[in-house]
Design goal:
single chain; alpha/beta; DNA polymerase, domain 1; OB fold (Dihydrolipoamide Acetyltransferase, E2P); Rossmann fold; 4 domains; 7-stranded parallel beta sheet; 6-stranded parallel beta sheet; about 20% strand; binds adenosine-5'-diphosphate; binds magnesium ion
């Protein structure tokens, strides 16, 4: 009924063009809102700034002259009387205006005025009699002009507009004094004032964020409603373990532990992210929850992205669980065939076992025995399918993702809105801060002195550079060159090199040597493992640090300060006040969350740490950075409706649930 050809002016060619732009029926036309608006605010000569774009009216006083500069590039000039002054107007590639502009014609021009040269360089030119609206919608539709599209919108609205209904619940529209969908349709394509623009903005932003959160929260609750096997753990054992730790848990650790353990006991599946800076004590929390699950008779799988990290976890948990008779198995990728067979046998036959490993954990030949709990460390390093594969090795196991990348709250409820989140912000009290200092590029000698000193004290040093090899276009330090230089300079020591072009085996062997103190100075790009623990490393030098995000530097800095030894982080930057100011915040704070907030503010959500695809976060009008408060409100509104058992049957929400049904068809479930 509302097919495209039902509109006058749409033939097969136009239809094809519209389809190419994702427009398949007249509702699509109506709902294709302008991507932005051009505002032509008529001003007077006296108020016309030379610094910005202005719109003025005047009378043509000379016939236009066209000069052809080169192919596809021409210039049209004429004189224009603006109020009492004549300006020479220049406009490029508008040759066709020659036949339209007559002497005496009243016109409106938009562009840049230069009083000294007496010129006006125009980007837009209109006849006064055609200049009706100061606000022009810009659609950016490939192959179709704005005017032409506006015509199609007008006709579609006339024909079918009345059929469209508001799927935003009326109570919310009223609560926030938003304009209704009907009113939105009336003005969004033809706003006449800046007040209209404001109304449009508010309505669309809220609607976008609300619908987004409605979907995310629905998914979260749906995950949570999946049945798991309830795990009746041994509470006494847990309490005993906690009190046997050589320290007291921080408040955040206690809270995270409670949240996780509660989920484990519940008959519903846990799908939770545990986030906190390295060293904030996530592993201990994980250990408590693992112990709980083991004591309830289930197996636990802990997956790490590399062998080194898996090995490290294996060592840690062996220490933690030494007093208990649960078995711990490390399914290493390095096992011989017979060793592997024995290991798989153990996994298959022994419940109450903790199995640690890399991707190897979800190989087809690994058969678990009552796998009840799956933990993924550095979860963003695994693909959706990899995590899914491991999860499917058990019957709806509880799932915990661990991440050492602090994510700002707004980003977290957007990226991970479909999960529950436990956050450890507070750090154990006994931590000494890594002393961070900025050094200008021309103070490198001082930096070398510091390296000298640490090496002499038998401590180890990391040096990080932005590039692997010399670049023709970027004047930045590269690992290869720095490695050669430092090898010469510190010939008494072992210098290692690590970057992404080094194969995985070699990478692990270099890391292993560094860990064993067989390499003293490690030159690397950012590939150095996030979680690798080398307590003897006390100095982190980052060259061209202005090339890195604050969070990234903070992550790197977390490689040092992992023992009682005083540690330093040196940020080398090239001369630039602005850069310096941005980096100085690292000298002042070691709060990973604060730094990531700052990153989000400065760099936007873009591809935040290459985590999840942030494609979901591109809204037409809303921004999760500047509209964080709306996001928060929208989330609570969404939750309130979803938690209301009757909502599904209420008329007020029926369109909203219809909408949800539609979008869920497109969701790729993790
Ligand atoms: P993460 O996994 O977040 O990097 P870990 O759990 O490995 O952190 O903890 C880092 C170190 O801090 C470990 O040596 C751990 O024993 C210690 N630790 C953890 N929690 C506390 C605490 N509340 N007080 C003191 N030390 C702690
Ligand atoms: Mg860790």
């Amino acid at each position: 009924m509302n097919h495209l050809e039902s509109i006058k002016g749409i033939g097969p060619r136009m239809k094809e063009k519209l389809n190419r732009n994702g427009i398949y029926d007249c509702f699509d036309i109506i709902n294709r809102f302008p991507s932005r608006y051009e505002i032509y605010h008529l001003t007077s000569l006296k108020d016309a700034s030379e610094m910005s774009r202005v719109t003025l009216e005047g009378k043509v006083t000379s016939l236009p002259i066209v000069s052809f500069i080169r192919k596809n590039f021409n210039r049209l000039t004429f004189n224009l009387l603006i109020e009492d002054r004549t300006f020479k107007v220049v406009i490029f590639n508008r040759e066709y205006l020659r036949s339209i502009l007559d002497i005496g014609e009243d016109i409106v021009v938009t562009g840049q005025i230069d009083r000294l040269k007496n010129t006006f360089t125009a980007t837009t030119l209109k006849l006064k009699r055609n200049f009706k609206n100061e606000i022009e919608p810009i659609y950016n539709i490939d192959g179709i002009g704005d005017k032409q599209f506006q015509k199609l919108v007008e006709l579609s609205l006339l024909e079918y507009g009345y059929l469209l209904k508001d799927d935003l619940p009326k109570s919310l529209v009223t609560k926030y004094k938003l304009i209704s969908y009907r009113d939105l349709l009336n003005i969004v394509h033809t706003p006449i004032s800046e007040k209209d623009l404001l109304k449009i903005d508010r309505r669309i932003k809220y609607e976008e964020l609300f619908k987004f959160q409605f979907k995310m929260q629905y998914l979260r609750l749906k995950h949570k409603s999946k049945k798991s096997l309830s795990k009746r753990y041994d509470k006494e054992l847990i309490l005993e373990f906690i009190s046997s730790l050589p320290f007291e848990l921080t408040e955040d650790q206690k809270q995270a532990t409670n949240e996780i353990v509660k989920d484990i006991l519940s008959r519903f599946v846990m799908n939770r992210l545990l986030q906190g800076d390295t060293g904030s004590g996530k592993t201990v929390v994980a250990a408590i929850s693992i112990l709980a699950v083991l004591s309830s008779g289930f197996q636990v799988a802990l997956m790490a992205p590399t062998e080194i990290l898996a090995q490290q976890h294996y060592d840690t948990f062996q220490k933690y669980f030494a007093p208990y008779d649960f078995s711990i198995t490390y399914l290493s990728g390095k096992l011989s065939t017979s060793e592997r067979r024995a290991c798989l046998e153990t996994i298959k036959n022994n419940p109450k076992t903790l199995i640690i490993g890399t991707h190897a954990l979800f190989s087809d030949d690994v058969i678990y025995n009552n796998l009840g709990y799956v933990i993924t460390d550095e979860q963003h390093r695994f693909g959706v399918n990899q995590r899914k594969k491991l999860r499917e090795k058990g019957f709806n196991p509880d799932v915990l993702y661990m991440s050492a990348t602090p994510i700002p709250r707004t980003l977290a409820i957007s990226l991970f809105g479909d999960m529950d989140i436990s956050t450890i912000k507070e750090r154990p009290k006994n931590r000494i801060k890594v002393e961070t200092k900025l050094f200008n590029n021309n103070q490198l000698d001082l930096v070398y002195l510091l390296i000298d000193e640490e090496l002499k004290n038998h401590h180890q040093v990391y040096v990080v550079t932005p590039l692997i090899l010399e670049s023709e276009t970027l004047d930045l330090s590269n690992a290869q060159k720095v490695f050669q230089d430092l090898k010469k300079r510190y010939s008494d020591y072992q210098v290692g090199l690590l970057h992404s072009k080094v194969n995985q085996e070699e990478k692990e062997s270099v890391m292993e040597k560094f860990k064993a103190n067989e390499i003293h100075l490690l030159v690397s790009t950012t590939v150095i493992e996030v979680g690798v623990d080398v307590p003897n490393a006390t100095l982190m030098v980052i060259f061209d640090s202005h090339r890195f995000g604050l969070s990234q530097i903070h992550q790197l800095r977390g490689r040092v300060g992992r023992s009682a030894l005083k540690s330093y982080c040196i940020l080398v930057y090239s001369d630039n006040e602005e850069v310096k100011e941005r980096l100085e915040i690292l000298e002042r704070t070691d709060d990973g969350f604060l730094l990531s907030e700052e990153d989000l503010r400065l760099r936007g959500p873009g591809d935040f740490f290459g985590m999840r695809q942030s494609g979901d976060l591109k809204f037409q009008k809303a921004s999760i950075v500047t509209d964080a408060n709306i996001l928060e409100i929208a989330k609570n509104d969404a939750l309130e409706i979803l938690m209301n058992k009757d909502a599904y049957h209420m008329d007020e929400y029926s369109l909203l649930f219809n909408y949800l049904k539609e979008v869920l068809k497109k969701v790729n479930l993790d």
